[in-house]
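Pilot study result, target chain (123 residues):
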Amino acid sequence: QVQLVESGGGLVQAGGSLRLSCAASGRIFSIHAMGWYRQGPGNQRELVATITSDGSTNYAASVKGRFTISRDNAKNTVYLQMNSLKPEDTAVYYCNADTTYYISSYYSRDEYWGQGTQVTVSS
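Predicted structure:
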């Protein structure tokens, strides 16, 4: 019912910057919290940052001060600006959206995930 498509990953040197985007589409009635998670080699998926529909944000301690999450509600899109990147930021980054969607005459709510985008930071 809802699809999330990420873009913006790639290879960057330590100290560099990248901007990730994630666009939601489909039978969207409203999107509540959106967020970015990451999974590095041999690690579990972990929270990077979240943002509510009214713009309240939350960050993992490891990225606070370096990463900025934002969203454009009109475009159903969430962004992650990543500055001062470190090799330990290397991971597959996934976006997540808590979404109310519609099918015919009823509504339901579920969490959706993107397919992931690779971020590699070289030392």
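One observation from the pilot: The longest strand covers residues 91-103. A full batch analysis is planned for the follow-on phase.
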